[in-house]
Amino acid sequence: ALTAAHTNLQELQNPTAADLSSAQTTVNTAKLTLQSAQAKLDTLQHPTAASITEAQQAVTSAQLGVDGAKTKLSELYSPDAATLQNAQASVVSAQAGVTSANAKLSELENPTAADVSNAQAAVNSAQLGVQVATDKLNQVLSGPEQTDIETQNIAIAQAKATLTTAQANMSEQNLVASINGSITAVNIQVGGSSSGSSSSSSSSSSSTSSSGSSGSSGGSTAITIVDTSGLYVTGSVAETDLPNIKVGQAASVTLDALPGQTFTGQVSSISASPTVTQGVVTYAVVVSLSDLPATGGPVPGMTATAEITTESHSNVLILSSRAIQRVGTRQVVTVMNNGKQTTQSVTTGLTSGTNTEIDSGLQQGDVVVIPVTTTSASTTTGTNSTTGGFPGGGGNFTGGGGNFTRGGGQVP
């Protein structure tokens, strides 16, 4: 018996490697047990009676493991420093596991106000999500609300306005001719910028014109286009002639560049604003040309003279206006009768300035003296009694010829 006791004491004082390994294994097993218990406690968010019991059993098992480890440690008398340190660490680790397990158990058995509040907040959030989803479903089932429809209509109107603006901006990038015709001048270059198109008509006094222009940036003319199918003459008439001028009256037009040719037209517009030049008042009149030849006719820029027919008579007696003299309130002419000169009162009608219509006082074939101007040292004016005669001499009246224009009727 004594020998056996000494043997046991010797084993305790000098443990074998197998004993130490066995003790270490036991400690490791206890650690694993504690870790498993901790994992199970961590997954228990809503503990039941069964889970609490299971947790209690895990604590008890861990405690048993700790006790066993302590027993083994106490049996190891005078271990080496490393073994003793490892064993002590195992004890500390196991004790921490016990403490953690007890804390989890306490949380499950006695939750704090913060835990309850957090859980309630999670429940409230979930309930709110359910309510929002339900409301969305009900809205889909019941159709859109009036306010939603109005909002979408406003959005559509805004989108249309944006589209209209974009289309307008795009259209302003193009130059559009205001008339049909031929391009006579291009004042822009490739790569230059251009703004909105504009059109204008240009003309010069007493010249044929028909043109349009497309505007470029800065308001200058980008392209000049000429429409030769709609030529017109712009000129001026004296204020004394204006009352006799009416829109639609016929006119004949001659051009310096086309001698011997006469073109027809009619008055298309009369300016309401006068032009005063050195005290002389005139009004602008536009005569539109018609029946122009396809080639060889007027072109824009030519100087033209338009004679407007304000009134015409046919089959009348005409006399040189120079033969008519005014005596007081009467108009008289000098007639040759049997070689003698006599004064005859006459009534006049229309005049072209050069010739005058005779309404009464003369007959076809009468011989009238036409005064002529002669130049001498004293520059006097007299009459030539040998001038003019009807059949058989100058200054005849003819039974048919001659249209006259009242008031001169000429657009210079």
In terms of topology, how is this protein built?
Elements: H1 2-13, H2 17-42, H3 49-75, H4 81-109, H5 113-142, H6 146-171, E1 182-186, E2 207-209, E3 211-215, E4 221-226, E5 232-238, E6 250-255, E7 258-277, E8 280-289, E9 304-308, E10 317-320, E11 325-327, E12 330-337, E13 340-351, E14 355-360, E15 368-369, E16 372-373, E17 381-382, E18 410-411
Antiparallel strand pairs: 1-4, 2-5, 3-4, 5-8, 6-7, 6-9, 7-8, 9-18, 10-14, 11-12, 12-13, 12-15, 13-14, 16-17
Short recap of the structure:
With 412 residues, the protein is of the alpha+beta class. 36% of the residues lie in helices and 26% in strands.
What does this protein structure show overall?
The chain is an alpha+beta fold. It is built from 6 helices and 18 strands. It has a 7-stranded antiparallel β-sheet with strand order 2-5-8-7-6-9-18, with no helix packed on it. Strands 10, 11, 12, 13, 14 and 15 form a 6-stranded antiparallel β-sheet that branches. Strands 1-4-3 form a 3-stranded antiparallel β-sheet, with no helix packed on it. Helix 2 (17-42) packs antiparallel against helix 3 (49-75). It is rod-shaped, with a radius of gyration of 63 Å. It starts with a helix and ends with a strand. Mean pLDDT is 75; it is low at 196-205 and 377-412.
